[in-house]
Amino acid sequence: MLFDPRGLLSRLPVQVTDYQAVVSPFDDATHCVYRLNTAQGAFALKVLREKQTPFWRGMDALFDVKLAQQVTRSIEHYACAADVFSLPVPTLIDYSQGCADSPAYLLTTWLAGEPIDSLPVSVQLIEDMAYADAQRHQKKQMTWGCAVAPSYSMKDWQARIASILPNATSSALNSDGFVPMIMDMRWDQCLQQQGRLSALVDIDALVYAPKALELVLMEYWLTPIQLGIWRQAYLACGGELPKLRDVRMTYRQLLWQWQILGPSCQDEWMQWPTFFD
Question: How many other C-beta atoms are found inside a 10 Å radius of the C-beta of residue 74?
């Protein structure tokens, strides 16, 4: 059941004339999202749902990032996202950590654009994504963790993975740096306008992590044809691809526990076709 936002609307710094619920296709969605119509234009209201999901339990275990914590650091988090992404992201207008009579929420600008269906996705959209990814990866740094203050070292990464997956060969988990990435990235996180990638709308799961982890995730949410187009465009933009063969199975095991794409058979997940070297 969706949260009824009517009692919350009077507390917002905008005068709402009407609103519509934005229904998520995912049963474990962590927010109730609404489009608010006002005299000043449209806004997005994201109301935090009080529920733990495997994904956010994983984010907490690996990155020390909790969804409620992301709300408390919204100003810095949205500023960081605006800096690291070449694509437009929503502008934060207001937020609340929540209290006894009101849930935590985020109020942002409503970005124009159309949702991107998983199929078919045009070559242009994939190339736009590759270009944006190549630019984002230039923001590489030598520490990882939450987007606002990534302070952990490579040794910390190896130790953290080993604590979560005791059988992992942590010595293989080397990286020449860490990049900003959305840990639950999918096409539905983005918008398009006139056939071009136009915005990124969900930045809650932005962290700094190894690029190899992002590529392992991409093997699941992009098709082999899309991956081929992406790789060609990414390399043409100056992107560099790390080798995945020594880390793929470890990262796949990690991501399977998170149910990033929903519950799945472990054997099927681990045996998913590979693409990158």
Answer: 21
Residue 27 pLDDT: 62
Backbone conformation region of residue 44, classed left if phi is above 0, alpha if psi is from -120 to 50, else beta: beta
Give the pLDDT score at 209.
98
Instruction: Name the 3-class secondary structure at 159.
Output: helix
CA 113 to CA 197: how far, in whole Å?
A: 9
Name the region of 100 (left: φ>0; alpha: ψ -120 to 50; beta: rest).
alpha
Q: Residue 33: helix, strand or coil by DSSP?
A: strand
Per-run averaged pLDDT (10 residues), the chain, 277 residues: 74 93 73 92 91 91 91 95 97 88 90 85 97 98 96 95 87 88 94 96 96 98 97 97 94 95 94 97
What pLDDT, on the 0 to 100 scale, is given for residue 248? 95
The CA distance from 191 to 199, in Å, is 5
Q: What angle do CA 185, 189, 191 make, to 5 degrees?
A: 140
37 forms beta bridges with 18, 42
- In sequence order, what DSSP letters do the residues of 88-150 get, joined into one string? --PPEEEEE--BTTB--EEEEEPPP-EEPPSSS--HHHHHHHHHHHHHHHTT-BS-BEESS--
Which own/partner contact pairs does 224-228 have at CB distance under 8 Å and 24+ positions apart? Answer: 224/273, 224/275, 226/121, 226/126, 227/275, 227/276, 228/275
pTM of the model: 0.94
Do 45 and 33 contact (CB within 8 A), yes or no?
yes
pLDDT reported for residue 2: 56
- Indicate the Cα dihedral angle 89, 26, 53, 96, nearest 10°: 40
